[in-house]
Amino acid sequence: MRRKRRLLPAPLPQRDGIDPVRVALPLEGTWPTVRDHLVERLAAGPGVIDAMVRDGRIVGADGAPVTPDTPYLPGASVWFHRDLPAEVPVPFPLDVVHRDEHIVVVDKPHFLATMPRGSHVTQTALARLRRELGIPTLGAAHRLDRLTAGLLLFIVRPEERGAYQTLFGDRRVHKEYEAVAPYDPDVPLPRTVRSHIVKERGIIAAYEVAGAEPNSESRIELVGHRAGLGRYRLTPHTGRTHQLRVHMNALGLPILGDPVYPVVTGPVPPDDFRRPLQLLARTLEFTDPVTGVAHRFTSGRTLGAWEAYDTWAR
Q1: How far is CA 197 from CA 237, 258, 272, in A?
Q2: CA distance 112 to 128
């Protein structure tokens, strides 16, 4: 049995809740200096790397700055902080539902990404919680789409993260979602939808492959309807990217506010928080793998299109 390699502690503190970047130097290489390797490896250009070295922004494991003449050492690592992009603040609260020494459960608003990725870095649930709660070791056990609101589980202790993430991998977490979509009396519900979903890197929309072995399963139930709208309970039994959105769209019931299904719409300004996707992670239920406590959490959020459609649709 191979032992998992222990990660080296970062010699730089987090900045705005964001970890420094670690670059492991390959065991094989002929670069005379660390600077030469970074110029060749990173798509930043020699001027950028030279400026970072000059300013002491790249450090080794001991925290000492890399100099222009620091020799290349195979297998060593260096760390630095990326320049963070300017981001429009997401002007909605990130409510803490539960907190103990092992986990933090939050009720995420729409438009806030779970973890840093792409242009969303500091305006993410993970970065905000690290700053607001003062827990630099905090990590996510799972994720929600940026446009989806609702319950998220975070882990306080890195050494326990695997136990909680395994809950999701082994499907031992019960999750229920709520959605608002068109009502169609000709769509028989409740029903279980199974299909083979593919999500390709760099492509916004996932798609279903007809005739392929199903890799996704969702239970769809109608809770109520009025004025041409339906309120739905969605229970995923797998966790494919965009799974619930894909399955609702396949039924001819695309979730209100969805900019991808059935049609990918054009980008909106980063400060446009109108008409959020009407999808909410309502319930999260599991037995804590560390304490043995049975947890059931419920989101306190509501979906605007169901509560006041005219206000949501402005």
Answers
A1: 14, 18, 30
A2: 10
- Compute CA 269 distance to the chain's CA centroid, rounded to the nearest angstrom: 21
The DSSP bridge partners found for residue 181 are 230
Q: What angle do CA 193, 146, 244 make, to 5 degrees?
A: 5
What per-residue confidence (pLDDT) applies to 4?
A: 47
Which two three-digit tokens encode residue 176?
Answer: 């229920």
To the nearest whole percent, how much of the chain has pLDDT over 70?
Answer: 98
DSSP secondary-structure letter at 82?
P
Rounded to whole angstroms, what are the CA distances from 82 to 14, 58, 116, 299? 11, 10, 12, 35
Banded model confidence at residue 314, pLDDT cuts 50, 70, 90: confident
CA–CA dist 38, 80 (Å, integer): 11
What DSSP assignment string belongs to 146-210? TT-EEEEEEES-GGGHHHHHHHHHTT--EEEEEEEEE--TTS--SEEEEE-EE--TT-SS-EE-T
pLDDT at 1: 36
pLDDT at 6 (0 to 100): 56
